[in-house]
Amino acid sequence: MIAPPVIQIVLGLYAALLAAGGVIGLLKAGSRPSLIAGLISSALTVLAFALSFSYPLAGLALGFLVALSLTFFFAARFFKSRKVMPSGMLAVLSLLVAFLTFLAMAG
């Protein structure tokens, strides 16, 4: 079982990394879609983080769905481009977050 504060920290860090990734995508590649997608994904993860305090199951479920969706998205991009950065790394990171939130929900 994963303690609630641990998964909340994971969700908070994941949200920060998603937002930072969107900003980096804008700065390095001039990609507005990366910025928008990163900020939307981050906002949903922040919502999951906030919900996890009052409604733990709802917060964890939302976090799981966001992370799982991003796992599939970034895995597809990785298999198309074969570039580890950023798509491969984000696919693995998202899979890890999805796995941890699943364990927290199951426990």
TrEMBL record:
Transmembrane segments: 6-27, 34-51, 57-76, 88-106
Alphabetic keyword roster: Membrane, Transmembrane, Transmembrane helix
GO molecular-function term, one example from the UniProt record: fatty acid transmembrane transporter activity
Listed GO CC annotations: membrane
Compartmental location: Membrane
Ion transport as UniProt keyword: no
Domain of life: Bacteria
A Pfam family that the UniProt record links to this protein: Tmemb_14
Name of protein: Transmembrane proteins 14C
Annotated organism of origin: Aquisphaera giovannonii
